[in-house]
Amino acid sequence: MILSDIEIERLVKDKNLIEKFNKENLQAASYDFCIGNEASLLQKRDNKEPVDLRKKSNINDMFKQISFDTEYILKPTEVIYVKTKEKFNMTEDLIAEVIEKTSVSRIGLFVRKMLLNPNFSGYLHISIQNISPNEIVLYPGMKIGQLKFEKVNTTPSRIKLYNNKLDAAYQDEDIFRGLNATQERKAAVNNAIDRLMKSGNQ
Prior knowledge:
Blueprint lengths: L4 H11 L2 E2 L11 E12 L20 E5 L4 E3 L4 E11 L4 E7 L1 H4 L3 E3 L2 E3 L4 E10 L5 E3 L4 E9 L29 H20 L2
Antiparallel strand pairs: 1-5, 2-3, 2-5, 2-11, 4-10, 5-9, 6-8, 6-11, 7-9
């Protein structure tokens, strides 16, 4: 079941579903989210070796961190990952899908789809590509896409909830994590377990 504006607003009040929520951004069955002023540019690597997902530790030089207080001019073919203004806190019985806004797609901006899993919490880093022949202005507060929220028929098993997974690479993401996120997440979880075990033995 896709949530209506009434149900989305109720969950914002009861469950803090959307932080920095703006009621004016509510549509009948979706929420228009905005970009902030932090981003990561996808750039050509100095290393000329092909990109290999099996070697994630050698890939993060593809990303350049930037910020823009007024605007950023996105060049044709350029890809950027822009942090959302809002933070999202999914409940265990909800998923959400990032979809394009018609007004954005018609000027040649391609916003890639994303899926927010049950119990995900964090800012989104939206992948945007300029597929037009023209330069396009991005600016803080720009409505770049929509989130469609949907109820899961039955609550997922606890171990599969996003916040409980060791490979939940982007849980609580604030600063862009690139492609080392899974290793960082596992290390953080293992360190927390070690601390708990040590404190229990004292």
